[in-house]
Design brief:
Layout (H helix, E strand, L loop, with lengths): L3 E5 L6 H21 L4 E2 L15 E6 L10 E4 L10 E5 L6 H15 L6 E4 L8 H12 L1 H13 L2
Antiparallel strand pairs: 1-5, 1-6, 2-3, 3-4
Helix pairs in contact: 1-2, 1-3, 2-3, 2-4, 3-4
Length: 158
C-alpha cells in the first residue's frame, strides 16, 4: 500500500475562499519550498517554473529529473462528480515533495475550516513522515498563528 495521504472533499471550496486565501497561501508555500533548494515538477514530474496553483487546481509532483517524482498531488476547487465523497489520495514514498504535500493539506484544511468541505488524513504520523517539516514550512512562510492551527490539525490526524 505504501505511505499515502488521503483527503475528502464532498463539497466545492467557494471561489472567493480559493482565490483570496488558498491560492496565495499555497503559492507562498511553493515559493519557499523552492527557495530551500527543492525542485517541483508539473503533474507528470517535468521540472517547471510555471504556476502550479490556478483558479481551480493545485497540481504538482516531485521533479522527475532529480528522481523525486512519484504520484501527482492534485487538489481541485470543485468536487469531482465521479466521486460523491470527493475521495482523493497521493503516495509520495517520503520523497522531498512530501513535505509540501503535507503543508498544503494542512493549509487548505485550516483555511476552509469545515470538515464537511475538506478534510485529510494520512498513513503517516507526527513521529514519522514530514509532519514536523511541514509545520516548520508553514510557520516560516505563513506565520506562527497559522502554524499553531496547522499543528493542531496534524495531531488530530494521528
Amino acid at each position: 500500500m505504501g505511505y499515502t495521504h488521503y483527503w475528502e472533499q464532498p463539497k466545492t471550496i467557494p471561489q472567493e475562499t480559493w482565490n483570496n486565501r488558498v491560492m496565495p497561501a499555497v503559492d507562498k508555500l511553493i515559493q519557499e519550498f523552492m527557495v530551500e533548494g527543492l525542485r517541483l515538477g508539473d503533474g507528470f514530474g517535468a521540472y517547471t517554473e510555471d504556476k502550479l496553483v490556478t483558479e481551480n487546481t493545485i497540481c504538482f509532483n516531485g521533479a522527475e529529473e532529480c528522481n523525486e517524482a512519484y504520484e501527482t498531488f492534485r487538489v481541485e476547487r470543485e468536487t469531482d462528480s465521479r466521486s460523491p465523497e470527493g475521495f482523493n489520495c497521493c503516495k509520495t514514498q517520503y520523497r522531498p515533495y512530501d513535505k509540501l504535500v503535507v503543508a498544503v493539506l494542512m493549509t487548505v484544511t485550516a483555511i476552509v475550516d469545515d470538515k464537511s468541505v475538506f478534510n485529510w488524513y494520512s498513513d503517516g504520523s507526527v513521529a514519522e513522515g514530514n509532519f514536523d517539516a511541514a509545520c516548520r514550512l508553514i510557520c516560516k512562510t505563513l506565520g506562527e498563528d497559522f502554524n499553531a492551527l496547522a499543528t493542531v490539525i496534524a495531531t488530530q490526524k494521528t
